[in-house]
Write a structure and sequence with these properties.
The chain is mainly α. About 75% of the residues lie in helices and about 5% in strands. It has helices at about 1-40, 50-80, 85-95, 110-125, 135, 140-180, 185-195, 200-215, 220-230, 230-240, 250-265, 270-275, 280-300, 320-340; strands at about 40-45, 45-50, 300-305, 315. A hairpin with a 2-residue loop joins strand 1 (about 40-45) and strand 2 (about 45-50). The protein starts with a helix and ends in a 10-residue tail after the last helix.
Length: about 350
């Protein structure tokens, strides 16, 4: 029993460490993207930034978000096994957050967390090997990083990614079977898919499905999806505003930038909160997003561009229900968090 408790304590510490190192990238990326996209013009391709300076700012924001997930994975592993685990986990976190393999699968932050933990425990095991003194000196900088990246990279690409790709294909078939059927069920499913991995394969499947329908002049599913993308970051931000005792000082400070990310539909703004308290945060934002998506779909909201958040309101058909559905979803998530998240009695941010 003690050993089991120690394992979960190690994981919690590792996740908190990963989040603490990831936070600056989230803030920098989110704020730069929010500022630049707020100046963009709505086109058929989404929000297009035309000002040269703002385009550069947008690129800086993209770079911050590109670093976010590798940092999370890397410092989860670093917490578990020290410096030799850092680079392999960053590489594997990058792989998890980008298309790879025959099916070009992405697993997003959930995949990166898994690879960070796997790297940490694999490297911890390798460090117990008894090797000659001449080899021991090159273990941390040569043998451990190469061996870890190769073995876990192959496992991820050929064992983990392949079934996920097949599952995503099945999910598209399920969504297609609902199209033209129950609007509220399709909307709720799209909303839940949007929030469950926040940029991972399930979210990307919902995006691809709605964009494909847009090409056929069917815009309601995209409306449900684009309402839902704003719910997780807005819900987490508002929760930090009104339930301050439930969050650390770092979390509360993140709330403001997360709020702006929600306004422009950057779902990833909620990732740091989900990593630190996945068993409470993830159900709350999934349920809220499902409610929002269902309300948007059943009321015929149409989003005419492949982007989300209140910033696209000028190119939405059904503006009132777009806004109402979004804020009902946010309210549901915030209410769930209010009743499920405990207060933090002593806050120690170092």
């Amino acid at each position: 029993m003690k050993k089991k408790g120690s394992f979960f304590k190690d994981l919690q510490k590792a996740f908190n460490t990963g989040v603490s190192f990831m936070l600056p990238a989230v803030v920098v990326g989110g704020i730069f993207l929010a500022v630049s996209l707020a100046t963009g013009e709505t086109t058929g391709a989404g929000l297009e930034v035309t000002n040269p300076f703002m385009k550069n700012l947008n690129d800086l924001g993209d770079a911050g978000f590109a670093m976010m997930i590798p940092l999370l994975s890397g410092y989860i592993a670093n917490s578990l096994a020290g410096k030799p685990a850092l680079v392999p986990a960053m590489i594997l976190g990058y792989i998890a957050n980008n298309p790879i393999g025959q099916g070009e699968v992405e697993t997003g932050f959930l995949g990166a967390m898994i690879m960070g933990v796997a790297t940490g425990y694999f490297v911890r095991w390798v460090k117990t090997w008894k090797v000659p003194a001449t080899i021991r000196t090159i273990m941390p900088i040569l043998i451990v990083p190469i061996l870890t990246t190769f073995i876990l990279g192959v496992v991820y690409i050929y064992i983990i990614a392949v079934p996920i790709g097949a599952a995503m294909d099945w999910l598209v078939d399920v969504l297609s079977s609902l199209q033209g059927g129950s609007a509220i069920v399709l909307g709720m499913l799209l909303g839940a898919m949007t929030a469950i991995d926040m940029g991972g394969p399930i979210n990307k499947t919902a995006t691809a499905f709605t964009i494909a329908l847009m090409a056929e002049n069917v815009y309601e599913p995209n409306g449900a999806h684009r309402i839902a993308v704003a719910v997780p970051p807005l819900a987490m931000a508002i929760s930090t505003f009104i339930d301050r005792k439930k969050y650390t000082e770092a979390d509360r400070n993140l709330g403001l930038s997360t709020f702006f990310m929600g306004l422009i539909g950057i779902t990833e703004g909620a990732i740091p909160f989900a990593v630190k308290d996945i068993k409470r945060v993830l159900p709350a934002i999934v349920i809220g997003s499902a409610v929002a998506g269902g309300l948007g779909m059943v009321n015929g909201v149409e989003a005419l561009v492949p982007h989300g958040g209140l910033v696209i309101l000028p190119v939405v058909n059904g503006k009132l229900w777009f806004t109402i559905a979004m804020f009902i979803g946010v309210f549901v998530s915030v209410a769930i968090l209010h009743f499920t998240k405990p207060n933090i009695e002593t806050i120690e941010d170092k």
